[in-house]
Design brief:
The complex is a heterodimer of chains A (145) and B (135).
Chain A lengths: L2 E9 L7 E4 L3 E2 L11 E10 L5 E4 L10 E7 L7 E6 L2 E7 L3 E5 L9 E4 L10 E9 L9
Chain B lengths: L3 E9 L6 E8 L12 E8 L5 E4 L9 E6 L8 E6 L11 E7 L3 E6 L5 E5 L5 E8 L1
Antiparallel strand pairs in B: 1-2, 3-10, 4-9, 5-8, 5-10, 6-7, 6-9
Classes of the chains: A mainly beta (145), B mainly beta (135).
Chain lengths: 145, 135
C-alpha cells in the first residue's frame, strides 16, 4: 500500500525566466521511517453553507508525533467564494474557488482540529463544495468515521 | 498580471478502490481571476534546533499568498516542525504547529499573511529548507 503526492508549479511570466518546480512523486511515509502510510479517509466531499467554523477533521491526541497529510480543495467555480481554514483558532489561509492545499498535520492535542468556514457565503451564493482526504498512520480515527 | 499554475497529483491504493486526484489551479490574487505577480524563492540552511521565522508577514505586501515549503533531506529521521503565529511572543511561543515535514515532504497552502510562518529543525545538523511564496 502506498500513497504518492506530487506538486508542480509553473509560470512562464512571473519572472524573467520560466518557473518550473516539480517535486516528483513522493511516497507518504510514517513519521521518521520509510514505511508507507497505511490509513486513509478516502476522498470526501461536503457542501459548506456555514459562515462559522465547522470541524472538517477532528484532531486525535494520539496522532501527536505521528505522520498525517491533509488535502483540501475548494471546488467552487466562483473565484470570489472562499473557505477559511483554521487550526486551533489560528487561521492558515483562504481557499478561493479552485484552490487546494496539501499539508502535514500535527495533532498536538484535541484542539488542533482542522476547521473550515464558508466565510463569505450567503443564501444567494450557493453552497461551497469542499473535498478533502486524510492519509495517516496508526491512530484510532473512529471519531471521523 | 502573470499566469502561475499549481497542480496536485495524489494516488493511493490504501483503500480497496484506488484514489486518484489531479487538480490544477491558477494562483490568483484574493477573490479575483487576476494572477499573482510576485514570487520569492529561497533556500536556507539551518544549523540549530531553535524555532525561527521562516516567512515573515512583512515580506509580503498582500493579505493572500500561496506558500510552498520543501524538505529536500534524504534522511527520513530529519524533519522540520512548521508553525504559524508570532515566534517568541508568548510563553514559550504563541505559535500553532501545523505539521512536520519529514525528508522529501512538501507542503502547499494559502496563507492569509496575518502571522509569521516559523520553522524548527529536528536536529542541529545542517538542514536545508526550500520555500517559495507567490503573492
Amino acid at each position: 500500500m502506498a500513497t504518492n503526492a506530487q506538486l508542480i508549479l509553473t509560470s512562464g511570466d512571473i519572472a524573467g525566466d520560466p518557473v518550473n518546480v516539480d517535486t516528483g512523486q513522493i511516497t507518504l511515509t510514517k513519521a521518521g521511517t520509510l514505511n508507507d502510510l497505511d490509513q486513509s479517509t478516502g476522498l470526501s466531499r461536503v457542501h459548506l453553507r456555514s459562515t462559522t467554523n465547522k470541524v472538517l477533521l477532528a484532531a486525535n491526541a494520539e496522532g501527536d508525533n505521528l505522520a498525517a497529510k491533509v488535502y483540501v480543495i475548494n471546488k467552487s467555480t466562483d473565484s470570489a467564494l472562499y473557505v477559511t481554514v483554521t487550526i486551533n483558532a489560528q487561521t492558515i489561509g483562504k481557499l478561493y474557488g479552485g484552490d487546494f492545499m496539501f499539508i502535514p498535520w500535527s495533532q498536538t492535542d484535541t484542539s488542533a482540529s482542522i476547521e473550515v468556514a464558508a466565510t463569505n457565503w450567503t443564501s444567494s451564493t450557493g453552497d461551497i463544495p469542499v473535498e478533502y482526504a486524510l492519509f495517516h498512520e496508526d491512530t484510532d480515527f473512529l471519531t471521523n468515521a | 498580471m502573470a499566469t502561475t499554475n499549481a497542480q496536485i497529483i495524489l494516488g493511493s491504493d490504501i483503500t480497496d478502490s484506488v484514489l486518484g486526484v489531479d487538480n490544477t489551479t491558477q494562483l490568483n490574487t484574493a477573490g479575483t481571476t487576476t494572477g499573482v505577480n510576485t514570487m520569492t524563492s529561497v533556500t536556507k540552511v539551518l544549523s540549530s534546533t531553535n524555532q525561527v521565522d521562516l516567512i515573515a508577514t512583512g515580506s509580503v505586501s498582500t493579505t493572500h499568498a500561496y506558500v510552498y515549503i520543501n524538505n529536500p533531506s534524504t534522511d527520513e529521521t530529519k524533519y522540520f516542525i512548521i508553525t504559524i503565529g508570532n515566534e517568541g511572543a508568548g510563553s514559550p511561543t504563541d505559535t500553532e504547529e501545523i505539521g512536520r515535514l519529514y525528508a522529501g515532504d512538501f507542503m502547499f497552502f494559502p496563507w492569509d499573511v496575518d502571522d509569521d510562518i516559523c520553522i524548527t529543525p529536528s536536529t542541529s545538523d545542517d538542514m536545508t529548507v526550500e520555500y517559495m511564496v507567490f503573492s
